[in-house]
Each structure stands twice: as C-alpha cells, then as structure tokens.
Design goal:
It is built from three helices and no strands. It is an all-alpha fold. Helix 1 runs parallel beside helix 2.
Length: about 130
C-alpha cells in the first residue's frame, strides 16, 4: 500500500483498493490502460462517488461488449438452426420417397439389418452431456 493511504479511514482504504482492483480488472479485460485515483481528506465523499461512477462505466462497457458478442453468436446459431432444419426436411422427404419406392422384401431386409446392427454411440450433443 502506498504512503498516500497513511492516516486514511478503513473505509477510504477499502474504497481505494476496490477501485484499483475493479479498474485494473476491467482495463485488463478491455486491453486499456489502468487508471489510478488518489484520495484526499477534503473530498473523500466525492472520491467515492467518482470511483463508483468509473466502476459503473467500466461495468457498462463490459456488459455492452458481452451483449454484442452474444447477439452475434445468437445470429450465427439461428442461421445454423435454419440450415439444419432445411436439411432435415430434405432428408425426411428423401426418406419418404425411398420408402415408397422400396419393395416389401427390400423393406424387410432393411429392417433386419437395422435390428442386427450394433447401436450407434450416443451423440455427444444430447441434453445433459457436457460440451
């Protein structure tokens, strides 16, 4: 702790330390420079308000960046869902057509093959599995 903190109340010291931690943390997240604030006895209340405002601004900035990233990811996922739904629909139509074109003997052989075939491994993206 620096000598400028000598003689400060525990609350002023705690606010100073919280401010330095918060600003350092948010600055490191955003790749910016660390901002330091010196407390003086004459305006400790104003310093607390200024610190609170800076912390709130940093948190808002982080929130905005995160929200932007989440929105982008949601758009990508929506597009993937749309493509997969279209592919699923196409495969269902193809499956239906093939079932209609297959003879009863072919369908029996196919069903038998499915029964004799070992079960496929579980899908890694099933609900409840870790990704």
């Amino acid at each position: 702790m620096s000598t400028e903190m000598f003689g400060k109340t525990p609350m002023e010291v705690a606010v100073y330390q919280l401010h330095n931690f918060s600003i350092s943390f948010f600055s490191s997240l955003l790749g910016g420079d660390v901002v330091s604030v010196k407390l003086d006895n004459s305006a400790s209340g104003a310093s607390v308000v200024a610190i609170d405002n800076k912390i709130e601004q940093a948190m808002d900035l982080v929130k905005n960046h995160l929200m932007y990233a989440v929105r982008e990811e949601v758009e990508v996922l929506k597009e993937q869902i749309k493509e997969l739904a279209e592919k699923n629909h196409q495969l269902e139509r193809e499956n239906s057509l093939l079932k209609n074109l297959a003879s009863p003997e072919q369908m029996e052989k196919f069903q038998l093959c499915l029964l004799l075939q070992p079960a496929p491994p579980p899908c890694p993206l099933t609900p409840g599995s870790a990704v």
